[in-house]
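Exercise 7. Predict the structure of Synaptojanin-2-binding protein from Parambassis ranga.
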Amino acid sequence: MNGSLHSSPNVVSIQLKRGPAGLGFNIVGGVDQQYVVNDSGIYVSKIKEDGAAALDGRLQEGDKILAINGVTLEDRTHKAVVELFRTAGEDVELRVLKKLPRHINGPKSPQPDHQSAASFWGTLTALAGVAAVLAFIYFRQK
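Solution. The predicted structure, encoded as tokens:
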């Protein structure tokens, strides 16, 4: 792991206390199931409502988990990381790289890039419909 990552202002430590439903989030990734192209890291895929992570508020979907209780997650399978979480105990310390724009899958803006294309096809479909109705009326009068 790049040493500069640990000194980055985007890397934070988050302590969570395991609740009745666990830590309250799901993960994706690992060397066997990359979530981000050319990155075998472990990412938060879902924060469960009212879970320990949601109540704490610092962990967000898209954050990359670098370590659990000081154990780095670099070059680990998804299953191995799940086992680390399962056996981590009641108090869990996470080292997290906060979500960066390049880690977001899909468009970066709240509005999809294909909006103008969809608008174009919608307009084209409406015009085709009007043309069909006018053709029907024209040929019916003959």
